[in-house]
Hints:
Blueprint lengths: L1 H22 L5 E2 L9 E5 L15 E3 H34 L37 H9 L16 H5 L5 E4 L6 E5 L5 H11 L3 E2 L9 E3 L4 E4 L4 E5 L7 E3 L10
Antiparallel strand pairs: 1-2, 2-3, 4-5, 6-10, 7-8, 8-9, 9-10
Helix pairs in contact: 1-2
Amino acid sequence: MARRIAWTWLCGATMAGRAFSVVLPQRPLGPCRTCSTSAHSIRPQLMHAQMDDKVAAAPLMCETSAYRRQAMLVAALTFAFATPSFAWDRRAANSKGASSMTLPKAGSEDLMSKKAHGTCMTAPQAPLRYGCALDVADQIACYNRDYAEYAGYFLKTKWLEDVQNKGVVTYYDVVTGKPLFKAPQNRSFDEFLAESSYHGWPSFRDDEVIWENVRCLPDGETVSIDGTHLGHNLPDGRNRYCINLVSIAGNPA
């Protein structure tokens, strides 16, 4: 940020200097009508300068006054250039979202320890959203660490019909009903759909994960804090969480 401000100021000063050196050329010594001194090297005043043989009739301004006005112009240019920079920084900070923390947020193997129902405390909710099959959800979310619903499964459900043109949609843990993902964020739904369709599973990015309730194990397995298997982190230059729809088809608690 400091570098950007310094560079902006320097550019503004350079532009202002060039503008004054071209528009306000040096003139012979004479009285200044701005600061009332009499022995300065003077320049024609910008608004009234005549660039022809009548220039002598124009009001005159000394170096001191010219520099004052130049400083005011530099300040104005600096503000004009710097303000978009600050706005850009705010937008960039917003687009990063959760990236200010180290992501993915790591979890321990203990999260997936054996519980009353596989790695979960209870069986999945019923009925599930998007018309997802309960038996598939039970197998994938509670009794599985490595496998997934088949590629493209999410497009065979009512998912697209239910979420298209609905803005940002929240996806809930199939067992506990806790919110796990919100998408799309910082991209369009069409971009989210295209990426998910290409890979075969809903594909979320860092700022679409609700990290309060989601963790990533050392091998990339992505799970809920309550032991629900969700999918895996399969980076493609950035973190990409490839998630089973049946694992996030729950209803809010």
